[in-house]
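B., you asked whether I could sanity-check this one before it goes into the benchmark set. Here's the sequence:
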Amino acid sequence: MKSDNKIIIVEPSPMLSGGLAQYFDDIKQVSVVSQLDSTDRLEEKLVSYNPEILIINPLMVAYNDIEMFQRLLREFPTVIPVALVSSFIDKSVLKQFKEVIEMTDNKQKVVSKIFNLLTDNNISQEKNDNVELSNRETDVLVALAKGLTNKEISDQLFISVHTVITHRKNIIRKTGIKSVSGLTVYALLNNLVDESEIYK
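And here's what the prediction gave me:
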């Protein structure tokens, strides 16, 4: 399955940037397309890659480049800004961001935060409680969450690819979630799949 959600990381520390990027190495639904150590080429990279997520150290824009950053957010309204916080940051600065990644966040927490953003302001737990998937739809959902393609699901469950696609349509209709990353979070929240089966 090809990565369908792109991430740009802007962080002056190669150790922080590289470590964070590694969290997404084996997550098929997202890919880190660029790592920058300054904001100099940020606009160029936003144009080139049109990413869904921008993870940036807020210190890089907090005082000197705040106007530039606000302009970029206006010019690229679909990009979701995420703060990578490694030291104390004033809360007024953090208001510019949709989410905050802390130094103490482990891989599961970071990936969950990103997935939640990608599913558009989290999945409503109340909505989840009202959804009833058939046993076969649940099997397909679990396989999707594990990163399997339609063909792989078809082979594993001994059903046709056409039937897999039909089940996927039913899952989307019932849950209201269209992206694979969103369905993965849904499967995790409803204990249909273990995090170790996804984050490995």
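One thing to flag: The longest helix spans residues 161-175. Otherwise nothing jumped out at me.
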